[in-house]
TrEMBL record:
Domain of life: Bacteria
Natural source organism: Flavobacterium sediminis
Protein name as it appears in the record: GNAT family N-acetyltransferase
SUPFAM superfamilies the UniProt entry points to: Acyl-CoA N-acyltransferases (Nat)
InterPro entries: Acyl_CoA_acyltransferase, GNAT_dom, MshD_Acetyltransferase
Domain N-acetyltransferase residues, every copy: 4-169
UniProt keyword terms in alphabetical order: Transferase
UniProt cross-references to PROSITE patterns, sorted A to Z: GNAT
Length: 169
């Protein structure tokens, strides 16, 4: 069984992370999606994640193969959901999940989400909130399979997004 490590990103990881994010931006475009086609995320997003201790990498044998931001209790767009969150307590929000194109199809987005759930529990936080574009069917399937519940719509950068929450045990 392959062992992956999930750790906070370091500034030295930035170039590799940005390469992985750029690959994901191109994949979304090739899929005909508008998601990530507006100049976001960008290198500054990654630098901010790292500076704020919110950037995380998934590694295999020390090689960075995946990335996400896991942010505690902060996503202003989530304050005005059209719908209703399951909880009003502390939460971790996951943004910018991306997998290196050489490692696609191995269920690694799910691995990252599981690691974020464990990280949340280590912080005594029992809610994870996420959102995705209406046309990101692969991510919606992952959320459904992992027990995330659709809660409504939120707006990020002027675009409606599907919002999900999972209450952790």
């Amino acid at each position: 069984m392959t062992t992956y490590t999930f750790r906070k990103a370091k500034i030295e990881d930035k170039e590799t992370i940005w390469k992985i994010i750029r690959q994901a931006i191109l994949r979304r475009k090739a899929d005909g999606s508008d998601q990530w086609q507006d100049g976001y995320p960008n290198e500054q997003s990654i630098e901010n994640d790292i500076a704020n201790h919110a950037g995380f990498v998934l590694t295999k044998s020390e090689t960075v193969i995946g990335y996400c931001a896991a942010i505690e209790n902060f996503e202003p767009a989530y304050d005005t959901i059209i719908g209703k969150w399951l909880t009003d307590s502390d939460f971790v929000v996951i943004h910018r999940i991306a997998i290196d194109e050489n490692f696609l199809g191995q269920g690694l987005s799910k691995v990252i989400i599981e690691h974020v759930e464990n990280y949340a529990k280590e912080q005594n936080i029992f809610s994870v909130k996420v959102d995705t574009n209406f046309d990101n069917h692969a991510m919606m399937k992952i959320f459904d399979r992992m027990g995330y519940q659709y809660c409504g719509e939120v707006y990020l950068r002027g675009n409606a997004r599907r919002a999900y929450e999972k209450v952790l045990q």
